[in-house]
């Protein structure tokens, strides 16, 4: 599954550092698409171009304050991730809570960065997240897995399963999807991969693969979906270099 990804990652590494302005434009493109698609998956109605102007500080008529904040907060959360990676900080419950706090800032401050104290359900999914009293222990187990078994996995597989396990716990009352995709890309970016963008038009396949991983404890289908998008991101970066294959 990962041979093509490893090959393309090697080619990209050979081309680094990419030209300054080329790299900047690539980052701006993929981070805008990441913000747009991640929010659209959760029901935000801003278009790609509307998301762009909101991130530039312009208010879009006919859209809610929440939709504006979701775009702005996501941009801030990405900046936090980049700083987190640059400093070499490790994944921890504290960092995850800080990340979630940014995702819900100004939207639901009462629950921003706070583990849920009530039962939640995932609409359309067979999987039912654990009861609230188990959330803290489940999150500790997630971090323990990340620091032990996960270290033996391919970075793309580790990122995909981190995402899936986190969503399975559903530790917050809201913002779990956005936070899980941020965590997935944290893992990819810290290992030198471009961010993965799960596109809104693939939402059904994405949800079904996630639910399958939770109900069968088999993460292969979801990992394949993430691997496909990881390769797509690598292709984008390679498209500006001398290497195409």
Automatic annotation (TrEMBL):
Picking any one GO molecular function of the record gives:
ATP binding
Residues annotated as binding ATP are 174-181, 206-207
**Assigned keywords, A-Z:** ATP-binding, Cell cycle, Cell division, Nucleotide-binding
Residues marked Important for autoinhibition of adenylyltransferase activity (site): 42
Q: Which domain of life is it from?
A: Bacteria
Q: Which Pfam families match?
A: Fic
InterPro entries recorded: Fido (IPR003812), Fido-like_dom_sf (IPR036597), Fido_containing (IPR040198)
Indicate the transmembrane segments per the record.
Answer: none
Any one biological process term the GO annotation gives: cell division
The UniProt record lists the Fido domain at: 91-228
Question: Is Lyase tagged as a keyword?
Answer: no
Reply yes or no: does the keyword Lyase apply.
Answer: no
Q: Which residues constitute the catalytic centre?
A: 170
Give the PANTHER family listed for this entry. Answer: FIDO DOMAIN-CONTAINING PROTEIN, FIDO DOMAIN-CONTAINING PROTEIN DDB_G0283145
Put simply, this protein is called Cell division protein Fic
């Amino acid at each position: 599954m990962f041979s093509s990804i490893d090959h393309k990652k090697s080619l990209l590494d050979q081309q680094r550092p990419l030209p300054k302005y080329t790299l900047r434009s690539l980052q701006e493109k993929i981070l805008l698409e990441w913000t747009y698609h991640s929010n659209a998956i959760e029901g935000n109605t801003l278009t790609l171009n509307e998301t762009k102007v909101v991130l530039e500080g312009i208010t879009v008529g006919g859209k809610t304050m929440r939709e504006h904040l979701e775009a702005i907060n996501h941009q801030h959360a990405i900046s936090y991730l980049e700083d987190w990676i640059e400093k070499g900080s490790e994944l921890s419950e504290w960092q995850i809570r800080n990340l979630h706090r940014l995702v819900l800032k100004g939207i639901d401050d009462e629950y921003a960065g706070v583990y849920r104290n009530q039962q939640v359900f995932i609409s359309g999914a067979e999987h039912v997240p654990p009861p609230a009293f188990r959330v803290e222990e489940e999150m500790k187990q997630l971090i323990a897995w990340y620091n032990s078994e996960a270290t033996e996995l391919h970075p793309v597989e580790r990122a995909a399963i981190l995402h899936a396990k986190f969503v399975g716990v559903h530790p917050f009352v809201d913002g779990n999807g956005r936070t899980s995709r941020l965590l997935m890309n944290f893992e990819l970016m810290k290992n030198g991969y471009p961010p993965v963008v799960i596109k809104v038009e693939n939402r059904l396949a994405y949800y079904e693969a996630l639910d399958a991983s939770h109900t069968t404890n088999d993460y292969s289908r979801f990992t394949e979906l993430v691997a496909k998008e990881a390769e797509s991101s690598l292709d984008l970066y390679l498209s500006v270099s001398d290497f195409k294959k």
